[in-house]
Amino acid sequence: MKIATVLGTRPEIIKMAPIIDEISKRNIDQIILHTGQHYDKEMSDNFFRDLEIRTPDYNIHVGSGTHGKQTGLMMKGIEEILLDEKPDIVLVQGDTNAVLAGALVASKLHIAIGHVEAGLRSYDMTMPEEINRRAADVTSSMYFIPTEESAINLLSEGFSHKNMFITGNTVVDACFRHLEIAEKRGFEEESLKKLNIDNMENILTLTMHRAENVDDKQRVTNIIEALKELDDMNIIFPIHPRTKNTLQNFGLFDELNNLKHVHIIKPLGYLDFLLLTSKSALILTDSGGLQEEAITLDVPALTLRYNTERPETVTAGGNILVGSDKEAIIKNARKILDDGEFAQKMKNAVNPYGQGESAKLTVDAIEENFQRGLLDIKAPEDIMTSFKREMKLIDEDINVKEFEEKHQALIHMVFDGTSMKFPKDDLNLKGMIVSFDLFEK
Ligand code: UD1
Ligand code: UDP
Known about the structure:
By secondary structure, the chain is an alpha/beta fold. The protein has helices at residues 10-25, 45-50, 67-85, 97-108, 128-139, 148-156, 170-185, 189-195, 211-214, 217-229, 241-249, 253-257, 270-278, 288-296, 311-315, 326-338, 340-347, 358-371, 400-407; strands at residues 2-7, 29-34, 58-59, 89-93, 112-116, 142-145, 164-166, 203-207, 234-238, 262-265, 282-285, 301-303, 319-321, 387-393, 409-415, 420-421, 433-439. It folds into three domains: 2-168 and 357-371, Glycogen Phosphorylase B (Rossmann fold), CATH 3.40.50; 186-347, Rossmann fold (3-Layer(aba) Sandwich), CATH 3.40.50.2000; 387-439, no CATH class. Helix 1 (10-25) crosses helix 7 and helix 3 (67-85) packs across helix 4.
């Protein structure tokens, strides 16, 4: 079996690292294709170093550009490589342009796609990421899904539960493994010099890079106004290159940089960043990965967005959405910083993203599907059978697997009266309303 991983940005490198490692450990043939969307050392190379994974076999060097140009160049480059390498499955992760390009190309070449971190939805079609993740889900044949909530998003859109694997999120694997290494190593000399972190208390880590925030002058201004008032904190801001550019273009960079309590620094390597995060009293972010890491590391988070495709972090109690609303940022930050009991409650939020076994579960499922011949993408050979969609209340003790075998059916959705349930093989259906497709022989 040969597995190809397509990645292109910082979070994809971090979240695919545990899977790349697991594939290597099992001596499975693999290739890594870097699209080159992120190219600064601080946004790419340093992560291969810190996460100790094999470096890419190919780099397409697409660089920066408009969505169409970037995605088009990626597709051309990825297609040439996949035609040559002929992998059995292509893995894409998350929701960047690499995911869109990798999924479109592989699907046209009839290569199976495994979407890592599938099923997330913000329901905000103005986000490029929402378009990318939906397109990837439509073309994928295996879904590695962080939580049951995300699996239910996919079920609601009509995807088959047979292709879904609830694995947790690989960010937990990366966090657990590398925090220990980071703690043993300590901060890099260079980072220490920049920050004098050992003497620092009241750390607030800030990251932001979302187009809808940093490309909007009014929103950035509101956020900066809130930061000005949090002057009892040491605000550490490892700045994303996109954000640095737009702050400079808006003429806001110097204003922020001149605040005594705000420390703008270059993006940190993964180990230093994990250490910084874990020492923070509060995280202020619009990053997807950081919302997940915050709850994994028991650090309260305020998310600078009006929606999130990670609602589990909010319902678990570890994350609060504050948008770019100055008053909401200040009010919630003060509550966390001044009310110990409230902060502790947020820290106690149960991590919904698993125990750090996501990479193992993912590669187990790929190996099993490969052995069962399920990675072959073929046109159906049978003459199409008609099928009926039915819904019924189940009044017997029968689990999902038994029901599907008995009726030659594919369960679509399960309702327990108040909410939808993921149709796990061993879920007892008694008393539940089930909708299913019935295949006629
Ligand atoms: C991309 C992803 C986003 C992800 C983020 C992770 C898409 C559509 N967006 O956004 O989902 O959350 O990565 O960080 O795929 N730049 C540099 N050096 C680099 C990379 C970028 O200077 O190494 C600058 C360029 O000016 C570029 C800008 O940052 O135009 C934006 O980069 P781009 O890769 O287009 O999008 P991100 O904002 O990084
Ligand atoms: N990160 C890092 N150094 C930094 C800032 C972030 O290593 O200076 C890591 C962080 O730990 C997380 C990931 O980058 O795992 C998040 O990436 P980003 O916010 O760029 O993208 P998103 O997750 O929003 O797609």
